[in-house]
Amino acid sequence: MKKTETQKGVIYAGFSYLLWGLLPIYWKLLDNVNAKEILASRVLWSFIFMIIILFLTKKLGLFLQTIKGFAKNKKQMYALTIASLLISVNWFIYIWAVNSGHMIEASLGYYINPLISILLGMIVLKEKLTIYQYVSFILAAIGVLIISISHGQFPWIAISLALSFGLYGLAKKLINVDFAVGLTLETLVVTPVAAIYIGYLFMNGSNSFITSGIQTDLLLIGAGVATAVPLLYFAKGAQKIPLSLLGFLQYIAPTLTLLLGVFIYHEHFSKIQLLSFMFIWSALTIYSLSKTKLLSPQWLHLRKEKSTSI
């Protein structure tokens, strides 16, 4: 029974990362629309879609109760606001990067993200790192340094994506709510801003929605579904599998994005970039193995005892 649940978890989580990895194709279909309008539409329609989901799953009552609870708990309310702003920034940078021909650097950001989370955990939460995590961070830093020197500029897209998502995860640690309710609340916070911006575009006559054809309209509305569905599948999968296994699966998304950038959209991928990625891939391999039994202190100690006895 447990094995079956784990298999389901792998399928759910794997599917969510598959969708995230292929999401650039969706944003590319909207490259005729300003990234700000795409973001505003994504926020607005995500909120509407999540309200429908809560209604169908009979969680609207829980949603309203949570809002009342936040009114009394200022710490959680501030954390929710910060989380909402951070994920909005992350979404905007990612959409802009994909539609501006920076898909490879965007994928780099999500490769670096777990290592940024390590750094944030050490600085903010005072978490102690293992020797393997230190090595991982140093290798990743070398990779970023190589790409910075070779390009003559700091890879701000990659670092901004990794940092905004890492800080978002940190803020989420302070918000203890149902996942679907949490996503609805996050979009609720920035929905008024999104609605005002869309209204501003309509008043100026610079909106793409309604004026650019039925395909663009459907894609902008569908941005809410494209945002929420992977997150919901991820939530279902994460509940059923160990964190270490989830850690391995998370590299599906940036790998697919990288492959799309190189082979489908023909972004330039130089030898220097490959060298940089190799350092980062090595860092991620060591980091991922450190989360399993293979490189855990207990496992290594056991192996040492066995070799000594022989």
3D architecture notes:
- The protein is built from 13 helices and no strands.
- The chain has helices at 2-28, 35-56, 60-72, 74-99, 103-123, 131-151, 156-172, 179-204, 214-238, 243-249, 252-264, 271-290, 297-309.
- The longest helix is centred in the N-terminal third of the chain and has 27 residues, at 2-28.
Measured on Cα atoms, how large is the radius of gyration?
A: 21 Å
What's the helix-strand series?
HHHHHHHHHHHHH
Count of individual helical segments: 13
Largest sheet: none
Tally of strands: 0
User: Structural class, judged by helices and strands?
Assistant: mainly alpha
Bulk shape: globular
> Share of helix among residues?
over 70%
Spatial separation of the terminal alpha carbons: 38 Å
Mean pLDDT: 87
Query: Poorly predicted ranges (pLDDT <50, ≥5 residues)?
Result: none
Please report which band the strand proportion falls in: under 5%, 5-15%, 15-25%, 25-35%, 35-45% or over 45%. Answer: under 5%
